[in-house]
Amino acid sequence: MRVDSQLMLWGVGVILLAVVSMFVSALYRRKESSPRRAIPVFKNLAGEVGRAAEEGSLVHITLGSGSLYGEAAMTSVAALESLTTLADLSAAYDTPPIVTTGDPTLYLLADDWMRRAYSRLGNVGRYRPTLVQFVGASPVAYAAQAATYLYEKGVGSNIMFGAFAQEVSLLSNASARSGVLSVGAATSWQALGALFPALGATELVMGEDLFAGGALVTQRRAYEVALWGEDILRWAVIAGLIVLAMLSALGFGVG
Amino acid sequence: MLRRILVTAIAILVGVTVLVGAVWPITPLRELRAILLQWAMIVGAFAFLLAFLNLLRANLARLKRKGRGRFPSFLIVLSALGTVILVMGELLWQDGRGIWSQYLVSNFLVPGESALLALTAVTLLLSGLQIFRVRRSLGSLLFLTVALLLLLKTVPAVGLLADLANWVERVLALAGMRGLIIGVALGTLLSGLRTLFITRPYVEE
Lengths: 255, 205
Known about the structure:
The structure holds 2 protein chains of 2 kinds. Chain A is of the alpha/beta class.
C-alpha cells in the first residue's frame, strides 16, 4: 500500500512538473526563438516530396503498429505530426504518398490526417481512400507486407516513423535491396538496434527526438512550448538522478 | 463553433478522468476509468472492421495493377475472405466455438509469424554486416564491437570476455536503455498533455 501511495505521489509530481515546465516555457520563451535541437531528418522531409514530384516516384510512409489506446499511442501521434509538412506538400503537388499502418486505430488517424491535408487546400475531392492502408494486424506480418510495397515499381523513398520493434529490419532490408532511400525514427531499443546499422547518421531519429518532429516541421508555438517544457523536465530529471546518486554514494540511503 | 467547444470539453474531461484515475486510483475514479477505456476498446473494434474493409479494397486495387505486389495481394484477399466465411460458418453451425479458426491460428498464423521472426534475425545480421558501408564512425565501431562481444559471450570457455560482456550488458547497456526509456516517457507525457489541451487534433479544423 505504501508503494502504491509513493508511486501515486511520483506520478502526480511528474505530471505537475510537466505542466509547470510547459507554463514556464510559454511565459519565458520568446516567440522568435527556435528550439535548440537540429535534427536533419525532419529538415529534409519536405525535400522528399519535391524529389518525388521531380522524379515521378512515390514516397512510402510506414507508421508501425502503435495502437491509439496502447502505450505507443503518443509515438504514433508524434510520428504523424512530424509528417505534417510532408502531407501538406504532397497534397499541394498532388504527389500523394502511400501510407501503411499495422493498427486499425492508427489507420483511421492517418487517413484523417491525410484527408485534412487535402482539405486545408480545399482539394478534398482529389483524396483517394486507398492512399492510407491497413496492411497487417500483427507487427511482423505488417512489416513483411509493407516491405512488398518497396519492391513495386515507382517507390523512391521509404519513411519509417513510429512504433516498431525488431521487425523494422524487414523494411530497412527491403529498402536497401530495392535501392530505395530510407529514413527512420523509432523509440524502442529493439527498433533502434535494427535501424542503427542500416541507416546513416543523418537518416535516423533516435528515442525522444521523435517527439521534437512536430515542433521542427510546423514551427508552431504550441509544439515548441511542449518541446521546451520537455527539455526543462529532462534537465530536472538529470539533476535529480545526479543528486540521488551522490546522496546514495554518501550513504544517505536513497535509491 | 458549439460543436468544437463540446468536442473539446468532452475530450478534456475524458482525458483528465483517465489520467487522474491512473495516478489516483480511488474507487469511483478507477471504475470510471475502466468504463471509459472499455468504450475505447469498443471503438477500436469498429476501427478493426473499417481497417479490414480498407485492406480488402487496397489489395483488390493492387490486384488490378501490374506489378510484383499482385501475388501477395491475391493471397491476402483470398485468406481474408476465406477467414470471414469460416468464422461466419462457425457462428452459424458451431455456436461460435471457434474450432476451425483456432486450427488456422495454431497451424498457419503462429508458424508463419515465427518464420518471419526468424527471418528478422537474418535481416538484422545483414544490416550489421553492412554497417561500415552505411556509416563510418566511432559509433559504428563501438556498435559492432559490443555486438560481437555479446555474441561471444554465448560461446563456452571465453572466460574474461564473458565477464566483460556481462558488465557491458548489466551496466552500460542497461544505463543506456533506461536513459532511452526515461526520455521517451517524458516525450510521451509532454506530447500527451499538449495533444489533449493545446493542439487538440481531435477537433475538426
